[in-house]
């Protein structure tokens, strides 16, 4: 299988987008690139349709114009990880869940630490919203982009959610 890449600049830094012909496979923070990119041969192809679509949707998200990503995904991970990542996709924009809630949601209430590990291994930060998972006590916990970025993303979603409530019925769920 071939993988393609494109770099895109966002308000939280430069992100490396990786896609296969099946869909988006990874969004990498700068410090992750050296580790993850050496595992698989990747072709620089910034015009790949999935990469262009991802860059556009990320731009809309950071502009407060997109709440739901509509992208083909090619998630690579264990069955357990994929269950966790699927559960993350159900967390609504502007809301958070604890690791314990996610563990219960996938039918593994005792697997809180394993959920945390799968969350940490999420290859699609922002799109698969692992930033919406917080500690049971409401504290921000680990995030591949750093806790400062996690707080920024949650704040962005909080502000956008508040604006939608005030917008008098405009549909912001794009």
Question: Topology of this protein?
Answer:
Layout: E1 3-10, E2 13-19, E3 24-28, H1 30-37, E4 42-44, H2 49-62, H3 79-88, E5 97-98, H4 99-105, H5 112-120, E6 133-134, H6 147-166
Parallel strand pairs: 1-4, 5-6
Antiparallel strand pairs: 1-2, 2-3
Structure description:
With 174 residues, the chain is α/β, with parallel strands linked by helices. The chain has two domains: 3-63; 79-157, Winged helix-like DNA-binding domain superfamily/Winged helix DNA-binding domain (Arc Repressor Mutant, subunit A), CATH 1.10.10. The chain has helices spanning 30-37, 49-62, 79-88, 99-105, 112-120, 147-166, and strands at residues 3-10, 13-19, 24-28, 42-44, 97-98, 133-134. The strands form two sheets. A four-stranded mixed sheet has the order 3-2-1-4. The protein has a two-stranded parallel ribbon with strand order 5-6. A hairpin with a 4-residue loop joins β2 (13-19) and β3. α4 crosses α5. It starts with a strand and ends in an 8-residue tail after the last helix.
């Amino acid at each position: 299988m071939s993988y393609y890449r494109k770099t895109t600049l966002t308000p939280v830094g430069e992100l490396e987008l990786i896609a296969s012909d099946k869909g988006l496979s990874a969004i990498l923070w700068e410090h992750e690139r050296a580790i993850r990119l050496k595992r698989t041969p990747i072709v620089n192809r910034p015009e790949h349709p999935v990469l262009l679509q991802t860059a556009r949707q990320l731009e809309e998200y950071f502009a407060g114009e997109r709440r739901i990503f509509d992208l083909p995904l090619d998630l690579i991970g264990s069955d357990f990880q994929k269950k966790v990542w699927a559960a993350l996709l159900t967390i609504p924009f502007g809301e958070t869940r604890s690791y314990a809630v996610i563990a219960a949601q996938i039918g593994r209430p005792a697997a809180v630490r394993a959920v945390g590990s799968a969350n940490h291994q999420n290859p699609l930060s922002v799109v698969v919203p692992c930033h919406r998972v917080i500690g049971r006590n409401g504290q921000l916990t680990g995030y591949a982009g750093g806790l400062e970025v996690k707080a920024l993303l949650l704040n962005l979603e909080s502000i956008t959610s508040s604006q939608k409530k005030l917008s008098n019925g405009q549909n912001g769920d794009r």
